[in-house]
């Protein structure tokens, strides 16, 4: 089965990992800082904290933003459930804003209608790798006194109005799962411009431990003393995986360019296939495409999904609206809440897109799809 996404691992990635395995530090060592420093070169210099997954990154970001009981987080339902689940785990209620019908990104006007005095965070999701409308979301967040979060699990290396993703929101989260553009097997990171957010994120990923005597409430016990002021978890990304991350980041520009070229090729090859809507792109963004999301019109998405799969082409659907998950239904969320997100979901089909996808493979995807719809 041709997958919809997969990692690209070459000999230099393997060597980077093996070198760490031969050394002294499997975790909490120098590769962690090196990875975070290299990552910050992609966020316009905004410092980064590495964590064990994109989900952990969201959990850390909400903790750093102070999201807690009684707070509300506004986000898009057209995302992986983790964007909303981590906010709920932090004690917040999630308010789902509808999406723009073409990009699938959160619609700032829909988000504006959901702002209340309890709104603590507004989270944009850069669906498919196309940045959300951050100027509008920024205005909204500032007016609400909320923290602006970007779930950039799809969009590392993208830019919004010439500003790199990671430098646009207050807190930006990345995922390094193998299907994403850069991988550490499992992994993630949070970029935080505000030093207070950064400090809180750094502590949360390490049990909330405070090691600096100057920061401790009751120092002077001895060199071993450490304190917990706020609960945290162990979300530390080990050196073994950070080394892979460093090696992968050095290939990010090529990954981004290759994915962009494949997207352009899909756009050309699929332009005349009937019953398809191809992904939209705003003039003021440079996406870093993680997905190639087409929409299959005329109620044929399921049929096309099944026939593509039967032909050995691993298409995917991204995503079931988050509040359709029974866990949200049990909290009182109902279908129909975000009609544009539901309409997008009903037609969405992600075609294979990854750096090592060959033109032959891509041609087979196009021919199979055109054969079904033609
Ligand atoms: C992948 C993904 C996540 C979660 O990342 P993991 O590394 O799999 O935990 C969160 N949000 C979005 C939009 C994602 O695509």
From TrEMBL:
GO molecular function, one term: transaminase activity
Pfam families reported in the protein's UniProt record: DegT_DnrJ_EryC1 (PF01041)
DNA repair found in the keyword field: no
Cofactor entry: pyridoxal 5'-phosphate
Protein keywords: Aminotransferase, Pyridoxal phosphate, Transferase
PANTHER family named among the record's database cross-references: DTDP-4-AMINO-4,6-DIDEOXYGALACTOSE TRANSAMINASE, TRANSAMINASE
Record-stated family: Belongs to the DegT/DnrJ/EryC1 family.
Name assigned to this protein: DegT/DnrJ/EryC1/StrS family aminotransferase
Species per Swiss-Prot/TrEMBL record: Nonomuraea spiralis
